[in-house]
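User: Show me a protein chain along with its predicted structure.
Assistant: Here is one chain, sequence first, then structure tokens.
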Amino acid sequence: MVRGAKLIAVVAAWVELGIVDKLAKATEPVPVDELPGDRRAVELSASVLANAGLLDGDGEAVRLSPTGRRLYEQGELPSPKNLEWFGDLSRMTDVLREGGPVRDENGRSKVTRGGVRPEDTQRTREFLDMLYRRSAESAAETASWIARHVPAGARALDLGGGHGRYAHELKQRGMEATLFDLPVPADLARERFGDELRVVAGDYKTDDLGGPYDVALLSNIVHGEDDASNRALTQKLAQSLAPGGLLVIKDMFLDEQGRDPENAAFFTTTMLYYTEGGRSYSLRDVKAWYESAGLEGFDVIAVESFTLTLARRPR
């Protein structure tokens, strides 16, 4: 744990000083003397990044390793815009004492709804762009699986679809895809895809969802809501489905002991920090939502980094 904390501290500092950006733009190794900061400090901290596989070099000149460059391009490394998240981690004692969400230095809650801050369009855009970059494989795999279990030309709803990649993948597989989300992400999806997608702006908690649909997808939504909200949302989606229609919930789910897999266990802390009632749920929780909505045939499809759960509206 100490080594991990030191690595994060070094990466964050290199990002904040602009060293990582400088290396990312360079085509050849950059002499350590030409990097921002104290030479000795840069040289010694470089060994940490080299050990982690993020940096290549001989001590006199360095460059991003292939792994480091890939992580940089995919937005997996800290950036100047998200470094405040590391500051939030230092407030864990306050969160444990008082409960979440985390508060800023002025005492204001940093709660978001699905990562969306309506008052900060630019921050929302950056967040959705990051999700778009990181979702290529998962969106393609999810859409491919759905396409094998619905009729050709199926009417598909991507609820809370944000950046639009999942809805676009559904359309690429011959479905009539509708993306439904809050006004700010809906506008950004229209910017990205133009007339390729049908985009509806609204609040899925209060507004009509349309339909009937042959399939509805909830991708990475339920972890941001409390149990009662997810139960109500599942019931609302069930009512929007055509007879025999399929509801697919994609997320990271915990086992019955609440400790595995690792990504779900650690992600639940993020939900503690930035939501009112979100968490990583178990498959047992999801099954209960489906059953309370009158859906049947509960099934689970485990993929490497996420899980698909599904059930159908009775015919």
